[in-house]
Amino acid sequence: MAYRSFLLGLVCWASMAQAQSFRVLAFFTAKNDAAHISFVKEAHAFFLKQAAIKGFTYDTTSDWNRLRSEILKNYQVVVFLDTRPEESQQRQAFERYMKNGGAWMGFHFAAFALTPSAYAQNWPWYHEEFLGSGEYKGNTWRPTSAVLRVENQQHPATRHLPETFLSAPNEWYSWQKNLRQNPAIKVLLSIDSQSFPLGTGPKPHEIWQQGDYPVVWTNRNYRMLYVNMGHNDLDYSQQPSRELSFTFENATQNQLILDGLQWLGKQKRQLKSELKSPR
User: Fold this and answer.
1) pTM to 2 decimals?
2) Over the stretch 53-102, which tens digit does the pLDDT of each residue have?
3) How are beta strands 23-27 and 57-61 bridged, if at all?
């Protein structure tokens, strides 16, 4: 009897573990920019290790043609590590996936659009409705740590974070659109005022003296999380460039990313009514 009870408990545990697991498909390009390539390599190692520990599946591909409905239906979370899709069919498949309750996490360059034509003509849904940020406006340089302020500690992605913490070095972006004026956008983290001046230049506009800069946010109409982090610091005077910092060496920041991924990876896709409810 005791042995049968043990077996029954083991089966129940396995069923619960399977129910709690989820599948992640991460897309990347990793070309040209050495700092983004460094981040992508680091991200792969980090997520593969965490997948083994926490029981989710992490698959990666640089083939953006896999951004198709028949493939996406098998994954609970899609991740854009460094870019976004360029082909119309790929974009349409991703948009359908998200509108049907899929989940997404995007890092740093995944939101980048340099000119109005790049976002307005090519993919207005992604940059204006989904991300809410519009085109890229500016950045700090060099990659620098910042004190980040957690604006909502009730969200599943931020509930284990302190009120403020020091990030890993990063190139920080600013955006054309004011995210706080968009009722669909919920800012989760922003740069705290004690970070200023932020950046070392040498160009004056690459050193932020003041201002409001959201760096992590979600859209109430979708299950998504954008994270500005994703650019390691490099010594470009050497060939090949020498890495000076690593994004995933910051434990507090890792907590944010993992909690966010766990939230996104809930196996049951949410109804539109839940997606639109306050978080």
Assistant:
1) 0.88
2) 999 999 999 999 999 999 999 999 999 999 999 999 999 999 999 999 99
3) parallel
Average pLDDT over residues 3-26: 55
pLDDT in tens, 22-61: 999 999 998 878 999 999 999 999 999 999 999 999 999 9
| pLDDT tens digits for range 192-212 | 999 999 999 999 999 999 999
Q: How many CB atoms lie within 10 A of CB 210?
A: 9
Predicted local distance difference test score (pLDDT) of residue 236: 85
Give residue 18's pLDDT. Answer: 45
Residue 238 has φ and ψ, to the nearest 5°, of -105, 150
Residue 72 is encoded by which pair of tokens?
Answer: 């996406």
Q: What is the 3-state secondary structure (H, E, C) of the chain?
A: CHHHHHHHHHHHHHHHHHHHCCEEEEECCCCCCHHHHHHHHHHHHHHHHHHHHHCCEEEEECCHHHCCHHHHCCCCEEEECCCCCCCHHHHHHHHHHHHCCCEEEEEHHHHCCCCHHHHHHCCHHHHHHHCCCCCEEEECCCCECCEEEECCCCCCCCCCCCCEEECCCECCEEECCCHHHCCCEEEEEEECHHHCCECCCCCHHHCECCCCCEEEEEECCCEEEEECCCCCCEECCCCCCEECCCHHHCHHHHHHHHHHHHHHCCCCCCCHHHHCCCC
d(CA 277, CA 221): 8
| Ordered domains of the chain (ranges, CATH) | 20-275 (3.40.50.880)
- Triad 83, 84, 87: Cα angle to 5°: 130
